[in-house]
């Protein structure tokens, strides 16, 4: 008999966050989206930081999730970025979405024929069950928490390497896989679209085996990996496009050039010389925006609305942030207009007063800590501090990423809080290890600037709960970085998750956002829309602030560059 978990631990707040977590909607720009890609050639990705992990059991963020779609497949996935509904969850290796039992506790999937790994070995239900069970490994399973949060397992199950086969996953034959859930979860198809719900050959992947290697099931496989410098993907000759309705896989190869300065990337894309006309990158730097008005660049510019929120998480278990009044004072004191300026102005940043961004289903418009012009209200903040004996202020350490915009944001916070006699010491952490660090409670300091995106775009169910559910706090891969644990909040999460009417649930999540912010476990800072400049030869590039679908991008002329 399986023991019913109250809720399994959550996993790494990985780079969901480059901003964060994980999925999003389609932008409304046209640009390269109107051009027809042609098969062949190499696309270059120019980027500042390395991916968190090649192993999808470990990584979980917008940047690496997009990479995973090129090399891994699962039972389901988010639809293509150019689909009529890019937010939909669609079948991938499964013939259809799952069939749920009447009580909602059992979900069954049937695999397609012709599925293979990059070495030609067949992919059956056994390999899928093994790959999915890796999420329970205490060292490896620091990626998406949703498998552990929904699939039933004994409390002492520690993954396939230590505990063997997963008792909550059945494989009655090679094409059938059955999942037994902790409790009914109407969005379970979305859970299996998470990056760690992918197959691996039985017995592989223990320890650090996949730190610098992969076993591909998608259209590309790894040819070269020099950590911090270069990743090259080439076609997986055993990927059968007839089994894949989403990935178009136009280019013959992908080359990820890592460790480049943001300004250098922008200069290369503007010049567009040689292979750089076949390049894409993350969002442009604020200093570059004015140059994009040039007529020879304007047609290439793409924009994407904000599906993520940047926020400051505070350790609610330690003084001074264990006091509600102190956390509320932080929300009043922050100057969001200054933060907007520090982040590049209104094209790249909008003040946030809620956890759920405007673009995400379920957003409710409210501001519990208002100030004129979003400039902060230091007088109200000081009143709150004085009410708990902190009228003379205090000091705390703020963890930030080693990127210029993040440091500018932190300096803005320093200046705003100095007005209420709060001294902020900055602890700068390398981007490649940042989310693992703040996701380890013993390593995070008093507070951290981070971000969050919905793990799937059809609802707000993954937007707020991972940040405040006290039952998902874990020693590694922790998403509740404030260590916030309130019984009423935990109970309300369960009530809304049980709703089968997703429209009603989304409305409830908006109200829940307001309920959470009354307790102020964090300070919403910004929603960050983005501007992108793909190379002139790039086609069908539809950027997303959470996860751009690389599998549909191609070149107009593969011989160019």
UniProtKB/TrEMBL annotation:
> Where does the Solute-binding protein family domain lie?
89-465
Q: Which UniProt keywords apply?
A: Signal
**Can the keyword Signal be found in this entry's annotation?**
yes
Q: Which CDD domains match?
A: PBP2_clavulanate_OppA2 (cd08506)
Q: Does the keyword Disulfide bond apply?
A: no
Q: Which GO terms describe its cellular component?
A: ATP-binding cassette (ABC) transporter complex; periplasmic space
Superkingdom of the organism of origin: Bacteria
Pfam families attached to this UniProt entry? SBP_bac_5
- InterPro entries attached here? Peptide/Ni-bd, SBP_5, SBP_5_dom
User: Where does the signal sequence lie?
Assistant: 1-25
GO BP terms: peptide transport
Offer an example of a GO molecular function term for this protein.
peptide transmembrane transporter activity
Recorded protein name is Peptide/nickel transport system substrate-binding protein
